[in-house]
Amino acid sequence: NNIRGIWRIKKIIKYLFYKSLPFPKLVKCNICNWSGRRFLDNNWLEKIACPKCNSFERHRLLLFSLQYFSFEGKKILHFAPEPFFISHFKYKSTYLTADLTKDDVDLNLDISKMTSINDSEYDLVIASDVLEHVFDDQKAIEEIYRILKIGGRALITVPQGDNLKNTFEDLTNISPEEREKKFGVRDHYRFYGSDIVDKFKKTKFSVDIFDSDSVSKKIRKKYVLSLPILGKDPLTTNYRKIYHLIK
User: Max Cα separation, the chain?
Assistant: First the structure.
C-alpha cells in the first residue's frame, strides 16, 4: 500500500509539473513556437529540450543562424533530418532529406561518397551532428564542397569539447561499448576540437561561426540558445557552434 501511495503521489506531481509548464511564458521555441516556464532535461543536459518538438539548443541556434537566409528558389539537402526541421523547411524550397540507412528519407546517400549527386547542385547542405558518425569525415567535407554551388553554404554542427584544441578519434574496430565510453555515444568515431576549422579550410571553404554570442542576451535567454546549466561530463558540448561553410 505504501508503494502504491508513493507511486500515486509521484504520478500527481508529474501531472501537475507538465500541466503547469506553459505558465508563465518565460521561454519560447523558435521552431514549433511552444512557450512556457522552462524547457525539459535530456539525458545529458538540463532545461534545454522543448516539450512540444524536442528540439535542443543546437537546433534552435541553427535555425536562428538562418534568419537572414532567403529560401526562395533554393535547393536544400538535409542529412539525418530531425522531424521538426522537415516540417519547417519542406514548404519553403526544393528540400530533400538524406540518410545512409533510414527508409523515411528522399535519398539514401553516403555523405562521403555522393556519386548520384552532380557537381554544384545544391544551395544549402545541412548536417547537424553527422560528421562524428562518418568514418572519413574529410572526404565527407570534400563531397559537400563538390555538390554545393559557388556561393552556396553548408551548416555543420559537431560535438566539441570545451577549450579542446585537437580532435581525438579512433578508427579501429573497437566495440560499441568502448566507443560509448570513449566518445559518449556508441557509433561516434571522434570528439572534435577547435582544429575542425582546419578541416573545413583544407577543403577551401570560407568559415563563419554562429554561436549564442551572435545574438543579444535577451534573445539568447528567451529561446534558450545556450545552456542554462553547464554539463559536467567531459564529453559534453557546452558551447555550441554553428559552422557556416561558404563555397
Answer: 69
Letter string b/e over residues 177-205, b meaning 16 or more CB atoms within 10 A of that residue's CB:
eebeebbbeeebbbbbbeebbebbeebeb
Closest C-alpha among 193, 226, 210 to residue 66: 210
Query: How far, in Å, CA of 113 to CA of 117, rounded?
Result: 9
Q: Rounded to an integer, what distance in angstroms lies between the CA atom of residue 145 and that of residue 207?
A: 12
Residue 223, amino acid: Y
pLDDT confidence of residue 1: 66
**Residue burial 107-139, b: 16+ Cβ < 10 Å; e: rest:** eebbbbebeebeeeebbbbbbbbbbbbbebbee
Residues 24 and 175: beta-carbon distance below 8 Å = no
Provide the whole-model pTM: 0.94
Q: What is the spatial distance between Cα 58 and Cα 64, in angstroms, rounded to a whole number?
A: 10
Separation CA 79–CA 85 (nearest Å)? 11
C-alpha span between 212 and 200 (Å, rounded) = 21
- Tell me the pLDDT tens digit for each residue of 85-115: 998 898 888 999 999 999 999 999 999 999 9
CA angle 138, 213, 202 (to 5 degrees): 20
How many CA atoms does the CB half-sphere of 168 hold within 13 Å? 7
How many C-beta neighbours within 10 Å does residue 38 have?
14
143, 136 Cβ separation under 8 angstroms: no
DSSP 133: G
